Amino acid sequence: MRQADEHQVISLIPSARTYYGRAMIAYEKKDFKKAEKHFKTGLSLAANIDERIFGNVQLALIYQHSFEFEKSIAVLNDVLENESKKYYDIYFFQATNYIHLEDYETAKAMLDVYRGARQNGTYSAEADEMKKMIEQQLSGKRPKD
Fold first, then answer.
1. How far apart are CA 114 and CA 93, in angstroms?
2. Among 3, 25, 75, 95, which residue has the fewest nearby CB atoms (within 10 Å)?
3. pLDDT digit string (tens) for 119-129?
4. Whole-prediction pTM value?
């Protein structure tokens, strides 16, 4: 019986979810290149708009954590232009990218869109803190620790 087990073929149907799961495991291990690869593979297999938006947002966050802010911005802009302007968390993620690039005016505009649409959103407290920091930066004051 043991010999038959060694030759057993396991069927795996590739799907976006399978590769997104692999990407998340790589991300948790801080292997951003492998996570990027798996997210891109998952995106190529995405069966619907929700899978595409999820994969693209996660890919953009991988770029953000890899300090590739321009790439992150490009991916998120593509989602906003081609998939959905109603996924408002994207505006928060964009604001984070622009802050890292020291483009405070654009970051503030992104936060305004986010806060206007999401009064009690997932990142509301962080958005308020970021906006205060930006306003201090724009007025020439250093943020208080």
1. 10
2. 3
3. 788 899 999 99
4. 0.83
